[in-house]
Task: structure prediction
Amino acid sequence: MYAKPKVKTIVMKDSVPVVTIDGPGGSGKGTVTSLLASELGWHLLDSGALYRLTALAALNRGIALDDEAAVAKLAANLDVQFIAGTGILLDGEHVELAIRQEAIGLGASRIAAFPAVRAALLARQQAFAVLPGLVADGRDMGTVVFPDAPVKIFLIASAEERAKRRFLQLQGQGVNVSLERLLEDIVRRDEQDANRAVAPMIPADDAIVLDSTQLTIQEVLARVVDEMHAKGVM
Ligand code: DC
Result:
């Protein structure tokens, strides 16, 4: 069982401690991010949700996902509220379930390739860095959004393992999907995210790459906490 970390106040004048957790979908980064943020009492940034919300808002308004300028404008003006826990409101409507659909994930990945969209969301993401600290989950948290973060993790797992995890999660929710189809979507999204020209999904030079294929969430969390201790962040 994962032992509750002892939190020490961080001595970092004028700066907010940030832990970045990047990696592909299904690597466990979302779960690790939310467990860590709640253990520490720190803020959480689910940056993927912002790309998903932008894709959903575009679809709701009939804006084509390949219209970079229109989607970027939408991203800059998103009316979003993150409510502590799991609540996410877009234009005042609950959209937690809607943004988790595979189609929205793929749409998010498409619009995330546009430099103007990424630029439009940058300041909004950086604004999450407030005391006592932030755990930020995404693809470019360690490379672009928080390049000075003292602790950077890049979490990976095999595509097969990630498809299996997603399959079991959806099955648990009573959603019927094919494992093969999920694997195809995962591989397609990895390719889109890793091969785009701007802010591709790659580990920062100073990131620790952790393979979660054979690890439990508690083991991953313990490794992240070790890294925080090693860097003097807690
Ligand atoms: O983490 P996620 O599956 O919710 O992210 C959805 C998509 O958003 C992902 O396929 C790529 C994009 N994304 C990104 O480009 N940069 C981020 N920091 C987070 C997500």
About this structure: The two ends are 20 Å apart (CA to CA). Residues 21 and 153 are 5 Å apart (CA to CA). The beta strands are 18-22, 43-46, 80-83, 87-90, 93-94, 134-138, 151-156, 208-211. The first strand starts at residue 18 and ends at 22.
